Amino acid sequence: MHELYTVLAEYYDTIYRRRAERVRDEIDFMEELFRKEAEREVKKILDLACGTGIPTLELARRGYNVVGLDLHEEMLTVARRKAEREGLSVEFIQGDALESDFEEEFDAITMFFSSITYFDDSTIHELFNSVKRGLKPGGLFIADFPCWHYGGSSPVVWDERKGDERLIITDWREVEPAFQKLRFKRLVQIVKPDGSVRAFMVDDELNIYTPREMRLLAGKHFRKVKIYGDGHELRPNDRRYWLVAVK
Ligand SMILES: C[S@@+](CC[C@H](N)C(=O)[O-])C[C@H]1O[C@@H](n2cnc3c(N)ncnc32)[C@H](O)[C@@H]1O
């Protein structure tokens, strides 16, 4: 997984351009969840696994006091540069989501774009403990995760542009139902105007959770847990879910 968040960090926003364009809708929905579910006013937010800050910066634009935390310094370098360019004040911290030592500091903790699925059956409990420690009483934890159908048909190919470079991205996705793993191999080809190509092969592995499993796991740690669909109450054919948990 690491190449995507290290050597390719500068290309992350380009690879996920279409997702970056959706972020305002995601934060609209999150604000709706704040209004519906939070038991305290949300002012201060910790965005865990914040990456290059796509959602973190949108939260800051809307006036929240935001801290972003990520494992990879290369992702944070991109995030800090974008914040500076926009004149947004966001603190970006390098660290492991499992080891953050915040104590009752945040009204909400967020974790966007399937980052929660990097945690498996054992580490997800450590994650929930760490999140709970960082939240004030009545604070909210919100994280989105994909439906296992996400594997879809393979390969998935798309292309994007970054300046005068062209990126061709090819994903081979495979669901292992017995182990509930989504594995993917991703080939990222960066083509320069002179035709020269740099190619990177990236492996990744995500954990698949059904809405019921996530509700049961989070229910061991949080007072109230609800699973939403993508932008609304859970529906039978949702392809993305939102965990909303109250400390
Ligand atoms: C799919 S990206 C999502 C980034 C960002 N949340 C977004 O919405 O664009 C996953 C991120 O999780 C980070 N990550 C993975 N494991 C982590 C951990 N244990 N602690 C903190 N960040 C982690 C990676 O460095 C990467 O930036």
Automatic annotation (TrEMBL):
InterPro entries: Methyltransf_25, SAM-dependent_MTases_sf
One Pfam family linked to the record: Methyltransf_25
GO biological process terms, semicolon-separated: methylation
Assigned keywords, A-Z: Methyltransferase, Transferase
Domain of life: Archaea
Keyword Phosphoprotein set for record: no
GO molecular-function term, one example from the UniProt record: methyltransferase activity
Positions of the Methyltransferase domain: 45-139
Protein name: Methyltransferase domain-containing protein
Lineage: Archaea, Methanobacteriati, Methanobacteriota, Thermococci, Thermococcales
